[in-house]
Design brief:
This protein has 180 residues and is mainly alpha-helical. Helices cover 58% and strands 6% of the residues. Helix 1 packs parallel to helix 2 and helix 3 crosses helix 4.
Length: 180
């Protein structure tokens, strides 16, 4: 094989990898839009089901921060040009609009724990294929910046305390909100 043939094959391989990456990004974007749609349907339906006298408890809720836990994943990238980038950006805008259609929660109980305590608790859990410290650090960082426009009542619950004290703090937060 000549030097020119090797160079040509290398260029073809690089181009093929880039096309594969672009296709993967579009598939990821389509999946993100589908997840956003499902979350919106679930949360709008839950609000409707609760009516004016009931309530629904969710263990997580989408924030306004892209990349946050249970939140939008896609960010518009205006720097790249071409059909694939335009399609990706269209999907990113669609995903953002879907998340904006999710009504804000009436009350938020934001549980707070130190990173050290979260790691210690995770290590003591009995679970196969348990997450490592790196995962706990990443999740801890993402949760800290939770914010949702329209969420007017936010209670911060210290979970460094005992389970019974934490439960009592949650009950008090809910009661104080219902009595307002």
């Amino acid at each position: 094989m000549t030097q020119e043939q090797v160079g040509s094959r290398t260029a073809e391989t690089v181009k093929s990898r880039k096309n594969t990456q672009k296709l993967a990004s579009i598939i990821y974007a389509i999946r993100a839009v589908c997840v956003a749609w499902e979350r919106r349907q679930l949360l709008v339906g839950s609000r409707r089901a609760a009516g004016s006298k009931g309530f629904i408890i969710c263990d997580r809720y989408p924030s306004n921060r892209p990349g946050g836990m249970d939140s939008a994943r896609l960010v518009v990238d205006a720097d790249h040009k071409g059909v694939i980038s335009a399609l990706y950006n269209l999907l990113a805008r669609l995903e953002s609009k879907i998340y904006q259609q999710i009504p804000p929660p009436d009350i938020v109980l934001q549980l707070q724990v130190s990173l050290e305590t979260a790691k210690r608790r995770n290590r003591s859990r009995v679970k196969a294929d348990k997450e490592g410290d790196g995962y706990i650090e990443s999740r801890h960082q993402k949760v800290r910046g939770w914010h949702r426009v329209g969420a007017e009542t936010v209670h911060y619950i210290d979970t460094e305390q005992s389970l019974n004290d934490t439960i009592q703090s949650v009950k008090e937060a809910i009661e104080s909100t219902l009595n307002d």
